[in-house]
Amino acid sequence: MARALIVVDVQNDFCEGGSLAVSGGARVASGVNDLMVRWSAGGEGAPAYDVVVATKDHHVDPGDHWSLKPDFVDSWPVHCKVGTEGAAFHPNLDPQPFHEVFYKGEHEAAYSGFEGRTTSGDGLADWLRARDVLDVDVCGIATDHCVRATALDSAREGFDTRVLTALCAGVAEETTAAAITELSGAGVEIA
User: Fold this and answer.
1) Binning pLDDT at 50, 70 and 90, where does residue 117 land?
2) The Isochorismatase-like domain covers which part of the protein (predicted)?
3) What is the C-alpha to C-alpha distance for residues 173 and 38, in angstroms, rounded to an integer?
């Protein structure tokens, strides 16, 4: 039985200074990086992950997902545009340890990492199953949007799913609390 860590959208545009910044994003990037350093070093007390992957918003032309007058529910300012610095991983996060990156939302809105694909076209659920993953930890940005969607889909796909809330940042307290309640109700462990 293998365990995976899914790091959701720890990108410049979702961290302080980005076009769709979430307070605490840079802190999450540092915290996730520290976790991966301990995992890479191994030894007693190291996190027990067999695979570590990331998701990235990867927008080329996502239609009405982008708007000059966003409603911040279904439409958003331009963010994570392919080829821009905003789409890159935050500099506090070293992407080298990732076994794979799943890109989502090239031409449409995409919140869940399970909508993403590798550069060779593999989907996240099948990729994890091919590596005998049964247990999944999810962290990243934002708790109330893409982390929520990824964790819900993980549970729907049959993975035992846990959200590492200390390594997440949410957009707003109210929507983050609602997301945690929804996740818990869906059988996702909140840690």
Assistant:
1) very high
2) 4-189
3) 30
β-bridge pairing 160-169 and 51-57: unpaired
The whole-number pLDDT of residue 73 equals: 76
- Choosing from 9, 13, 137, 153, the catalytic residue is 9
| 104 is an active site residue | yes
50 labelled catalytic: no
Instruction: Work out the average pLDDT over 160-170.
Output: 98
Task: Note if 81 is an active site residue.
Answer: no
Reported pTM: 0.95
- Domain housing 51: 2-190
Beta-bridge partners for 188: none
Indicate which CATH number applies to the domain containing 86.
3.40.50.850
Total of domains in the chain: 1
